[in-house]
Amino acid sequence: MLKIPSFEIDHLRLKPGLYVSRKDEVSYETVTTFDIRMKRPYREDVMDTGAMHALEHICAAYMRNDELWGSKILYFGPMGCRTGFYLLVVGDIGTEEILPLIERTFDFASDYEGEIPGATPIECGYCVDMDLEGAKAHAALYYNLLIDAKKENFNYPKKRQKKEKP
User: Fold this and answer.
1) Residue ranges of the domains in the chain?
2) Which H helix or E strand runs over 50?
3) pLDDT-derived band of residue 165, with 50, 70 and 90 as boundaries?
4) What CATH class is the domain 14-148?
5) What does the pLDDT look like over 77-118, one tens digit per residue?
């Protein structure tokens, strides 16, 4: 079985940030996948499912209602490793272009009050596992990380070069 591209990333060196994970051509359109990496793998605790689930609902609803980007959002959902989210967007888009939306989204989520969007048994497969306060805390940490981000938070770490033996 061939390795998929996301398994080629050195997760031991990966820092929290916003990365272009891949770009795919689908029926004459480019689809850009973003890696919204909120936790440093193996160095920070992963998000618990309740906080991550609530954050998924809040962020997905916010992005899909955004006046500029809403019609281009294909998917926003959790990574199985619980260190972040994937965002799929129609268009050949870079981190600089999507960053304002991500900042607005996580700023909004960090202060969110009220009912979590789509959190009823009719709308969600398991709405009883949601933690709004945890979601807000994770959103605030990520929002602050984006505000203070450096170049390393927007480019996957380069592969280490193997040293040749003399």
Assistant:
1) 14-148
2) helix 49-64
3) low
4) alpha beta
5) 999 999 999 999 999 999 999 999 999 999 999 999 999 999
